[in-house]
Design goal:
alpha/beta, VC0802-like, Rossmann fold, seven-stranded mixed β-sheet, 9 helices, 15 strands, elongated, disordered C terminus
Length: 389
């Protein structure tokens, strides 16, 4: 494992569409030479930077540390190269491991087969050298290993995060179609919210957008509620350095009571979940929740920003998705002049019936669903509304 002061290449994984946002976050924590890639950002940094990336980057899913890169011309190369790597520097015979494999345009056609062959190579090395082998633990391994095959290049990395970083630890209750926390954080940043104007989510569900907004505004680390990271089990884990990283981040957290963040939802159960999640996060004074259908809602202020994640008619069935999006547009026009409204949806046809011309649009993915995140300027007075063609 690298020492504290050495600089290493690392890869931060993210949701497709959020790469520039993650790069900005990495730049802000002192990462060096950050470069946007497909669903990831490469960067350089020392061990403290790796700890900060896990703890502070709200749009990162995983932080990977590449340790072995080699070419593959035939399937046998995978087993040989991985078996020759000195895994005893990172694992003991009585440790546990898990392997995630991702493949693209390579001689292999099955990622599970790649993971299996990599596992065989590692345990065979231990069995031959020590007469005892590590076991597999898919849920809570000592070491999680990522094998990435692209064309003829194989990159083997150590996963410093363990569980995906979208698992913040504050969301105790979820609804039918909860929004991924990393995506929620990315949408807030894409919206350009200045942390000062009121922020409203009028279809707030279990409260993810609201909580991520309050955490952003208060400077609360995205990993504040997590109790475990993959690097905790690494042989070179530096407890004192980790405590220093947390202490430095904690010194920048501000009291949340001054933030004007509001959530509506027409569902009693959704509001109940949101109340529980907001309470667990200790953000009840930062976030105001009220039961209200969007069409019956009253704007909480004269101006502000709206970020909403309406049902997509995928996991939550809509009776008439076209009429539903027409209703959203009508309410925005009639009640929310002076606001900037952002809507995310994977229903790329129905969202057009909002009837407003977006001033900004982004393509993002909510899990496997391709979505559009559209921004609408709702002007006051004679400039009232910009209509779609």
């Amino acid at each position: 494992m690298p020492e504290n002061t050495s600089t290493n290449l690392m890869i931060a994984k993210t949701v497709s569409g959020l790469e520039p946002i993650l790069k900005a976050e990495l730049d802000a924590i002192g990462a060096l030479n950050a470069e946007v890639m497909n669903r990831s950002v490469s960067f350089e940094g020392d061990k403290a930077c790796m700890y900060r990336a896990n703890y502070l980057c709200s749009t990162a899913l995983r932080i990977l540390l590449p340790v072995h890169v080699f070419e593959i011309n035939a399937q046998e190369d995978l087993y040989r190269e991985i078996k020759e790597f000195p895994w005893e520097d990172h694992l003991d015979s009585d440790s546990t491991l898990a392997i995630d494999a991702v493949i693209s345009y390579t001689v292999f056609t099955n990622s599970q087969f790649v993971a299996q062959k990599a596992k065989d190579a590692i345990v065979d090395r231990f069995r031959e050298k020590f007469g005892k082998r590590p076991s597999v633990d898919l849920d809570n391994p000592t070491l999680r290993i990522n094998v990435h095959l692209f064309k003829d290049t194989c990159t083997v990395s150590l996963d410093s995060s363990g569980q995906s970083l979208h698992k913040r630890g504050y969301r105790k209750q979820t609804g039918i179609a909860p929004l991924n926390e990393v995506l929620a954080a990315g949408l807030i940043r894409l919206s350009g919210w200045d942390k000062k104007k009121p922020l409203l989510d009028p279809m707030c569900g279990s409260g993810t957008i609201l909580i991520e907004a309050a955490m952003l505004a208060s400077g609360m680390p995205s990993g504040y509620f997590r109790s475990d990271y993959g690097f905790f089990k690494w042989k070179d884990f530096d407890q004192a350095l980790w405590e220093k990283v947390k202490s430095e981040a904690g010194a920048l957290v501000k009291a949340p009571e001054d933030f004007r963040i509001v959530g509506f939802d027409k569902s009693v159960m959704s509001l109940k979940r949101a109340v529980e999640n907001v309470g667990f996060a200790g953000l009840d004074r930062a976030i105001y929740l009220k039961r209200a259908a969007f069409e019956d809602s009253i704007p909480p202020s004269a101006e502000g920003i709206i970020i909403m994640n309406p049902p997509y008619d995928e996991r939550i069935e809509l009776d008439d998705s076209v009429e539903f999006y027409k209703m959203i547009g009508n309410v925005l026009k009639r009640k929310y002049s002076g606001y900037k409204a952002w809507v995310i949806s994977s229903d790329l046809e129905a969202i057009k019936f909002i009837g407003l011309k977006p001033s900004k649009k982004y393509k993002v993915f909510n899990g496997p669903l391709e979505c559009r995140f559209l921004g609408f300027d709702l002007y006051e007075g004679k400039k009232s509304i910009t209509f779609a063609d």
